[in-house]
Design goal:
Shape: globular
Helix content: 40-55%
CATH architecture of the largest domain: 3-Layer(aba) Sandwich
CATH topology of the largest domain: Rossmann fold
CATH class of the largest domain: Alpha Beta
Number of strands: 13
CATH superfamily of the largest domain: Response regulator
Structural class: alpha/beta
Strand order of the largest sheet: 2-1-3-4-5-11-13
Number of helices: 16
Radius of gyration: 23 Å
């Protein structure tokens, strides 16, 4: 059994599902996969590679210098997964996110909120992926609207959140409101949300916001909670593993740059515009989004609203176009479909969606979709892999 190294800076964030995707393909390729976290190692990369004698390596988003990589990987097949700035241009075998699809999804979501202007907030350092997302976002906004557009071009540091928030507040102040803001990732989106909060800007009246990666600890803890584009990092890991297997089998393989895209947009408060702006109803909608799958009922939501049942339902429908029960059921249906797209046993789904029983879940799903749970699952196929040479 060959050894393959999955080399990353730290096992966090997107690195976790990417490693899971690689590990998922390991059995098919008869590999033993070893993960190396460079930030936790006192040994140089060259020494680590020499120790394991791998058949191949997947280098995930690392900040390894080109000269160091050349010495460490001499003669060893290497695939770069979601590489940092400049690496993809010089590497022959790459799997990276598709900036075009990401930016277009962001533009579509923000334009849906009917902003008066749009803005882009990129990464703290100059990177190819950040620049590409910003360029395509601007191009898409200008293609689909005549809105004013601005891009934050000042440098900023991860360790100076107060400084970047002050810069952002100054940047956003003159823009026509509401401004639709696309942040390059969820960490950047948190800085935008906090800058707006400190400046007294309200969502959605003054701004709407979309991030990338769907990092729940960032998105759910922000105020407002942040709408985010979730990327298919697990599929990225699978792609990288399969590409490495081809490269190991054929060292003269034609250079390839493969792309992976988003799987869904998770809509939260930062882009949820109500037809009638009522903060009490907005809080109820957010409560449903967060807790519908825990088993809450329309009665629970009504008890939290300072109106009679009739007035509460009337105001909720005026703001959302739905009854409270319909909103709860829609959130549950979305979760059911999300779980059916995984390999979770069907018998485990009801308890994760706030349903009373398996039989109730089956009746509900058939009534809403016309399909049984298994029929719906069988119709789902893995998204086609997009390849770009």
């Amino acid at each position: 059994m060959d050894t393959v190294l999955f080399i990353t800076d730290l096992h966090v964030g997107s690195h976790v599902p990417e490693f899971a995707g690689v590990y998922e393909r390991a059995a098919a390729h008869h590999w033993r996969v070893i993960e190396l976290e460079l930030s936790r190692s006192v040994r140089p990369l060259r020494e680590l590679v020499a120790q394991w004698k791998p058949a191949g390596c997947i280098l995930e988003g690392c900040t390894v210098k080109a000269a160091e990589a050349k010495r460490a990987f001499k003669g060893i097949p290497v695939v770069h997964l979601d590489p940092d700035a400049g690496t993809s241009a010089s590497s022959r075998y790459v799997v990276e996110s598709d900036p075009g699809t990401i930016a277009e999804w962001a533009a579509k979501e923000l334009l849906r909120t009917k902003p008066a202007s749009c803005a882009y907030f990129g990464w703290c350092t100059k990177t190819v992926w950040s620049a590409e997302r910003g360029h395509i976002f601007k191009k898409t906004v200008q293609r689909d609207s005549s809105l004013p557009f601005a891009e934050f071009k000042d440098g900023w540091e991860i360790g100076d959140t107060l400084g970047v928030q002050k810069k952002l507040a100054k940047f956003l102040a003159p823009l026509p409101k509401p401004v639709g803001i696309f942040a390059v990732n969820d960490y950047a989106a948190v800085q935008v949300a906090e800058a707006c909060r400190q400046s007294g800007l309200e969502c959605p009246g003054d701004f709407t916001l979309v991030g990338v990666d769907n990092e729940e600890m960032h998105c759910e803890c922000a105020d407002p909670t942040i709408t985010s584009i979730e990327l298919d990092f697990r599929e990225a890991g699978r792609l990288a593993a399969d590409l490495l297997a081809e490269l190991i089998a054929n060292p003269k393989l034609t250079p390839r740059h493969l792309k992976f895209g988003p799987v869904r947009l998770v809509r939260r408060q930062s882009t949820r515009a109500l037809m009638v702006c009522d903060p009490r109803i907005a809080r109820a909608v957010e409560r449903i989004r967060r807790d519908a799958t825990t088993g809450i009922s329309a009665t629970d939501i009504l008890a939290e609203l300072p109106f009679s049942r009739r007035v509460a339902e009337k105001r909720f429908r005026a703001a959302t176009g739905k009854t409270i029960l319909e909103e709860i059921q829609d959130v549950r249906l979305e979760k059911i479909c999300e779980l059916l797209a995984t390999d979770i046993p069907i018998g485990h789904i009801a308890s994760r969606c706030g349903m009373q029983s398996d039989s109730f879940l089956k009746r509900f799903f058939k009534a809403r979709t016309g399909l049984t749970l298994r029929e719906w699952r069988n119709r789902q196929t893995r998204p086609a892999r997009r390849r770009k040479r």
